[in-house]
Amino acid sequence: MTSSFICSTCGETHEGLPTDHGWKLPDDVWAIPANERPDKAKFNSDLCQLGSRFFIRCILKLPFNEQSGYYGWGVWIEVAEPDFYRYVELYDKDGSAEPPVHGTIANSIPGYPPTLGLPVVVQFQASTSRPSVSVSATGHPIATEQSKGIDNQRYHEILAATGSLGGP
Fold first, then answer.
1. What is the DSSP letter of 27?
2. Has this prediction a pTM greater than 0.70?
3. Burial of residue 86, with CB atoms counted within 10 A of its CB: 0-12 exposed, 13-18 middle, 19 or more buried
4. What is the pLDDT of residues 28-75, one digit of tens each?
5. Do 120 and 103 meet the contact criterion of CB atoms below 8 Å apart?
6. DSSP H or E run through 71
7. Contact 55, 26 (CB under 8 A)
């Protein structure tokens, strides 16, 4: 197995195996041709607006069962406009005491049945952490893995599904 990887975000080499995978944009925004995207959507690495749709980049954690830590999916969550603006208001503050908000996953996560539109609950965090996501759809494999954790074999399957194993 690989003992280091090149990070797709920063371009640097890191030791060990990747413990996260994220998307730069919600799938519907990414699907817009690159030259048209800035005219149709407003976005940065944490926030996105496409017309009357609002998205927040969050982290969906799958705890490891056979090692410490977790695998983190850096997913975009579509939320209601008031929740989006409340998050913007709290962006550089501690929002962890805020009540959770509801949303839906805005990315297709590889290695799972459809995740696009899957209902979730979002909990804002301190200003240095992305909001956390809990999958609401009991019975969906990602919800099960979020509550029960993943073993090393499943971790390997996730790395394979994301293209994190093997060549370039």
1. H
2. yes
3. middle
4. 999 999 999 999 999 999 999 999 999 999 999 999 999 899 999 999
5. yes
6. strand 70-74
7. yes
